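Hey,

Quick one before I head out. I ran the complex with uridine-5'-diphosphate overnight. Inputs first:
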Amino acid sequence: MAHKRVLVKFSGEALAGEAGHGIDTQILKFIAQEIKSLVDAGVEVGIVIGGGNIIRGVTAAQDGIIKRTSGDYMGMLATVINGVAMQEACEHAGLEVRMQTAIKMEQIAEPYINRKACRHLEKGRVVIFAAGTGNPFFTTDTAATLRAVEIGAEVIVKATKVDGVYDKDPMKYSDAVKFDEIGYDQALQDHIKVMDDTSIALAKDNKLPIIVCDMFKEGNLLDILKHGNMQNCSIV
Ligand code: UDP
């Protein structure tokens, strides 16, 4: 099945590359090319990027010096840093891009306005949704699911390092078994690692399918979203 409008979520960690932190421009370039292949095929693309390569609220607040709420705002700012970088990479690849932030910072990006975002998408522009939901105690997975529902995306794609949902961590266990399909309820019951419970519950309430796939396999996004090849992914 070919999709018209999708929301792709990348984790911040994915941008870090070998270094484990910061932003690897070669990875940005690769992601931008993958996104471009979708846009060239007529798919409208929204993007949410995490901030884990820079800072996470929980980690920042670990020893009690920084409050969790402040740590979370730091995390949301990290997603803006990644968003600016992603915007540059997409433009470098020849795409038209707009970034919208859940927390106003108008010198850097537009504020999130749903109708405006939809208009950009209709015009073939990629829209990057940054600063998460704008609220502490949420994740960018939840922000991505929320934006996907808001913009009427047909599917949310969680682009990760693994090629789907497994019964246990495939990085640790060689006998881990991949699910081609897993129901929302089972995903919630099993607390699958690739997506947090809040985002799965939100997707379930809105009947939004979640595709979990390997972002580093070249052509994978296009294969899944345009050609309906579901071999290298799982669907929730
Ligand atoms: N965050 C938040 N509210 C949101 C989204 C994100 O407070 O709606 C903060 C939170 O501290 C989180 C950090 O931003 O740890 C970075 O996002 P996330 O951990 O989801 O990034 P990823 O793991 O995808 O890189």
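The chain has a mean pLDDT of 94.

Talk tomorrow,
K.
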